[in-house]
Amino acid sequence: DRTAADLLVLMKRKGVSFPIVGASTLSSPRFSELIDSKDEEKTFPGYFTNGILTTHAIIFDSANRYANQFLTDYREKYKSNSADDVIYPGDNVINGYDAVLALVTAVQRSELEGTDIVADRKELFKALLGMDDADASAQGVVSPIFFEPSRNTTRAARFGIYQNGEIVSANVQFEPIASPNQIKDLQEQIKRGRIMTVNGGYVYKANVVYSGVDLLGIDEIDIKTSTYRMDFYLWFRYRPNERDVDFKPDDFVFTNAEGEVEIAPIREETNADGTVLKTYRVSGTFKNQFRFYDYP
Question: By three-state DSSP, how is residue 81 classified?
């Protein structure tokens, strides 16, 4: 971690600006701590790291609900003394927690007597061997945990890119396919670019879509009807897939709209990295249940 951090700082200070791609060493808590201690990084977050592509066991902005609940619990348990510090668990924490989850699941599925340790260990080992596919898996932080015949787990690293000193998910991720023979339209999925072959295996090509709202105003709040009028910008950023005509991330509807919603395209631009940014201005009346039971 220190070698990578020292080399990166030296390269940046010497004016070297080549693209940098690295493994999880470039996303470890220790690496971040070393970089954050530099004066340039304190003044301009991301001064050294912006644009670096790296891997991580998990990147929470595109993770599932299990992972984000784990993140919430982890931050509650290990609070920082500084309100400005944002705590993220490292790969060792995630992998260790997943190992414990696998063992707990095995214990729950075993008939342990508690009187014969040798017999109990055999029973536990048998239960672990039984986690041999997705249907028999244990739910992990990152993904379901099950073992291949080699007794390893199949887990795809998440690709991330540094922006303003933080790691965000890259626009394309890859998920291993354990049983490609069960996919009826495999060749069609490959043709559309949804599935790719990597090292003789198959992976899903997952497109990460970023979206956000910039609020302009909320008016005409009606407590009796639980309605309100909103005016806001809605934006999407993603990497297009021209081979898949069904990939339309900016095809959206508002399920809680009351009446017609005005939607006007404002901007569409292609960034230097090939991603597309589309922005709409939205105005309309919406309905949502107001919750007053916590007031005052």
Answer: coil
* Long-range contact set of residues 127-133: C-beta below 8 Å, sequence gap at least 24: 128/102, 128/103, 131/102, 131/105, 131/106, 133/178, 133/179
In which residue are the tokens 């991580």 written?
Answer: 56
The dihedrals phi and psi of 262, each to the nearest 5 degrees, come to -85, 120
Q: What is the pLDDT of residue 136?
A: 86
**Terminal-to-terminal C-alpha distance of the chain:** 50
- Which letter does DSSP use for residue 154 in this model? P
Q: Position 192: which residue type?
A: R
- Cα separations in angstroms, 186 against 152, 203, 217, 241, 259: 25, 11, 47, 18, 41
Q: Residues 153-167: pLDDT tens digits? A: 877 778 899 988 888
DSSP reduced 3-state for 87: coil
DSSP 28: S
* Tokens matching residue 109: 């599925």
Q: Any idea what the Cα angle at residue 87 is, between residues 81 and 92, rounded to 5°?
A: 125
Nearest to 278 by CA among 259, 293, 263: 263
Strand ranges inside the chain, DSSP E: 53-56, 138-139, 144-145, 158-163, 166-169, 172-176, 195-198, 201-207, 210-222, 227-238, 262-270, 276-287
Strand pairing report for 158-163 and 201-207: unpaired
User: Whole-number mean pLDDT of the chain?
Assistant: 86
The 158-163 sheet, strands edge to edge: 53-56, 158-163, 166-169
